[in-house]
Design goal:
By secondary structure, the protein is mainly alpha-helical. The chain contains 13 helices and 2 strands; from the N terminus they run ααββααααααααααα.
Length: 298
């Protein structure tokens, strides 16, 4: 007699294998499972906090106890719009953000161009590290270091002393220098990335067609890298618009951030209403940047 061998059934897949098979067969479920936690964080923590801020702007505060009174009112927004001092503070802050953005673009473009198009690989790597190194330091340490540099006995006045010139560092000009230093890396890196993505063949084609270096720069390089410049300006403009530490340390003038910080403890609804000013400005700025295709360079 011959014995007939019966094949054993394959082992039953474990829970992990069944789960991976399920996600493989349902790619949409896999995608939403991966995005669930970050979307929940964005929706609850970020957007939720903004909604609470917007809601509190329609309330009022008791003048004696500073407690919130949950009564709908538009007085906070009316005060922001109708009070000249708050309009001046808003315009001063927007002007400072624009000047800082312009200065960062002027300083960052030659450096980024050298890094992307001229420097050797070793030099390029060293320059990238040099650009990133200020970001490793504490913001507060850098702000206080600039406060020392801009003081009456600081490095700037020491250098200008032999020429009989003095510089009032604790002013809007000094604050402009501080902001330009702080946010310059955020402009250099997007421009560098934008320049590095320009194919060399386009520049060679322009040269073959008789275009000189200056003409090639304005007709080929600058239009292609302009979205990257706008992308970098998003960082420099928004960071300047909402900062309150550097203005407190360097300048005696009020800015949007310092007003919000001052009013937060005693008049939270008004501080929330005034915080809508940079939000509206940034949203408008982002819409313009989107028209200029800046997000393609991020």
């Amino acid at each position: 007699m011959t014995s007939v061998s019966i094949a054993e059934p394959p082992p039953r897949p474990g829970p992990g294998r069944r789960l991976s098979t399920f996600f493989f067969r349902h790619p949409r479920v896999r995608l939403w499972t991966l995005l669930a936690l970050p979307v929940l964080w964005l929706g609850v923590v970020y957007i939720g906090s903004l909604l609470v801020l917007l809601l509190s702007a329609f309330w009022t505060a008791d003048p004696f106890t500073a407690k919130l009174v949950h009564e709908f009112t538009l007085d906070n927004f009316r005060r922001v719009i109708e009070t000249p001092v708050y309009r001046d503070v808003a315009f001063r802050t927007i002007r400072m953000a624009a000047l800082v953005t312009l200065a960062c673009a002027v300083l960052a473009f030659p450096l980024a161009y050298y890094m992307a198009r001229i420097a050797s690989t070793r030099t390029r790597n060293l320059l990238v590290v040099a650009v990133l190194m200020p970001l490793w330091g504490s913001y507060l340490v850098k702000a206080y270091a600039w406060r020392t540099i801009l003081s009456g006995e600081g490095a700037i006045n020491w250098a200008l002393g032999p020429f009989g010139v003095s510089f009032n560092g604790f002013s809007n000009t000094g604050l402009w220098l501080v902001f330009t230093y702080l946010w310059l890396p955020f402009m250099v890196l997007p421009i560098y990335a934008g320049l590095e993505r320009i194919p060399q063949s386009l520049l060679e084609a322009s040269s073959d067609l008789g275009g000189r270096s200056v003409r090639t720069f304005f007709r080929v390089t600058l239009p292609l890298v302009f979205p990257a410049v706008v992308a970098g300006s998003i960082f420099t403009f928004s960071l300047t618009l909402g900062d309150y530490i550097a203005p407190t340390l360097i300048s005696s003038d009020q800015f949007i951030g310092t007003v919000i910080y001052r009013e937060y403890g005693t008049a939270l609804p008004f501080a929330a209403a005034y915080a809508m000013v940079p939000i509206v400005v940034i949203v408008a700025y982002l819409l313009v940047a989107r028209k200029l295709k800046a997000f393609e360079s991020l």
